[in-house]
Amino acid sequence: MTIHLDHTIVPSHHAVASARQLAELLGVPWSETGVGPFAPVFINDGLTLDFIQTDEDFPVYHFCFRVEQAQFYAILARMRAAGVAFRSTVRGPEDGQINTDYGGNMVYWNVPDGHQWEMLTVSYAHQPSP
């Protein structure tokens, strides 16, 4: 059997609002109530991000979404319409630019809750051999 990541838990100080915002930006479904205490965002048929409400401090997690070119621009348009600041480098300034260093498009943003979100069209983790 192939191994697939089914879900992961995303700690949040505003779980419902954070789940809603991410789902709206990505254009995917979500629910205020899931199994147990979660506000799930249904990324695709096989992956759910379960936002959980907490008052505790938590580390910043990094999540990267690989999307098709048309999806990239649709999501970017929703980000701009929502006033979500983004950047072209992982830790750089919010420059509103698109990174094209790896043969595709890539941006980063840090809302909701400070987590680091990345969207790209070409995976730099699986680059072809030279």
TrEMBL record:
InterPro entries for the chain: Glyas_Bleomycin-R_OHBP_Dase (IPR029068), VOC_core (IPR037523)
SUPFAM superfamilies per UniProt: Glyoxalase/Bleomycin resistance protein/Dihydroxybiphenyl dioxygenase
Give the stretches traversing the membrane. Answer: none
Gene3D superfamilies, sorted = 2,3-Dihydroxybiphenyl 1,2-Dioxygenase, domain 1
Start and end residues of each VOC domain: 4-122
Protein name per UniProt? Bleomycin resistance protein
Organism (species): Rhodoferax saidenbachensis
Source taxonomy? Bacteria, Pseudomonadati, Pseudomonadota, Betaproteobacteria, Burkholderiales
